Amino acid sequence: MKSITKQKPFEEVQQLLEKFDRVYIIGCGTCATMTKTGGVEQVQEMRERLQELGKLVTGSIVIPTACDDMTETAIKENDGPIQNANCILVMSCALGVHRVSLYIGKPVLPALDTLFIGMEDSPGDFHEVCAQCGQCILGQTAGICPLTACHKGLLNGPCGGTNNGKCEVDKNRDCAWTLIYNRLEQQGRLDLMRQYQPPKDFHVSLRPRVARVV
Amino acid sequence: MVSKFKQVLNSGKFVVTSEVAPPKGTNIENMHHHIDLLKDRVDAINITDHQSSVMRFPSIGGCLAIKEQGGEPILQMTCRDRNRLALEAELLLAYTREIGNVLCLTGDAVPVGDHKEAKGVFDLDSVQLLKAIRQMEAGTDLGGNELDGAVNFCAGAIVTPEANPIEPQLLKFEKKVEAGAEFFQTQAIYDLDNFAKFMDYARKFRVKIMAGIVLLSSARMAKYMTDNVPGIFVPQELIDELASAPKGEALNKGIEIAGRMIATIKKESLCDGVHIMAINREEKVPDILAAAGL
After folding, report:
1. Which domain holds residue B77?
2. ipTM of the prediction greater than 0.90, yes or no
3. Which neighbouring-strand residues pair with A12?
4. In this structure, which topology does domain A3-116 adopt according to CATH?
5. Cβ-nearest to B125 among A151, A156, A163
6. Could you tell me which residues of chain B have a Cβ less than 8 Å from any Cβ in chain A?
7. pLDDT digit string, tens, across residues A95-119
């Protein structure tokens, strides 16, 4: 799983920290390191920028995987500088922010916006492939999810906005249904696209979603 | 209840529909005027549904106005702005107010319009909306619950004969037919040879096809459409013809072209009728009809 994030505009971070003068920073060694949004370098940069603003940075750490339960140990080990701060700035995806909030009774603030769960195409380029809908239809759609890859999430074929295999919202984006059609045709499985897909059952994935695995 | 429009469709007559755009705001004078202008000249009038994702007075409001003014409305319904409950509820309202025709569309994407920050809904797609109508006619809603009073509609959809690539579009067209579409209004067509080829294919299906005629107002507009609007191809001869019009006469040339195309489609029985879209120039529709000899 790769949680794709981007850094919030610094002005927004500044606003979030408006009432706090002592900050502890937490980065993440997994996804946010890969996306260069919350790794060692970015945490260091943030530290410097906050110091320029006159904030006292009481300490910082890059936790190997901020969303897992080892985070509790890391936080305990750094209790001193954390207690010395009046807020925690987390440079990980929202999962890390949630995890950290479980263990620290101080304001925990996100420095990143979580965009999507995605795949890396080439270094630095990511795209969204799964909407985590809870009812996978990739078997009928040649491994391309129309709910995710089609801007409108259409289930029964392309809309009239498709043009030269591209999407109406952006000429540089592929039309998911053209891709699906081409791949199914190549595989001799176009009959799958002819099948009527009923409306999505949103009841199977009632929000907030919970799962007990095993 | 069999809608007047459905009776015309089944009569074998060359069908002519047009469309009126509701206002952005509460000044409905112009809309009423356009409805008055068209109601006795065409077989039915579409009211667009926030076309191009631009927020406007609602389609159902325009259809009610058509009913009040004695015309025959076609309710355009996109899947962009309402979930299945809202779509079903609006169908109930439409039926009780004797709006008997619905055109089911996916709807343009939200970011092409004037409320770019809005959430696009697309809980259903156009095929599923057609199916929903047929299910409601059989007496149940999409939750599987019995309706206290069913609906009955002449349901249609759209198709883009110039789509590139065309194959996925045709596959969806067939799904719309299977889902219960009785008529199709096409995206604008300008190349009648291409259209004739499309009709060779489409004629195999028991549905009525109405060719989309969009009024060209200048060579620049024609060029823009062919370069930028998905599924529209304007042949160079038509662009040249518009460009050759004397200054200030391009719009009249556009009317002449539209009239000529309609006359040819009718004479050669290329399809079952036409749907005229004058886009902000509803006043010119009677001139187009006159130019077509209708």
Report:
1. 4-217+271-285
2. yes
3. none
4. Rossmann fold (3.40.50)
5. A156
6. 80, 84, 106-109, 111-112, 120, 122-128, 131-132, 142, 158, 160, 163-165, 167-169, 171-172, 174-175, 178-179, 187, 230-231
7. 999 999 999 999 999 999 999 988 8
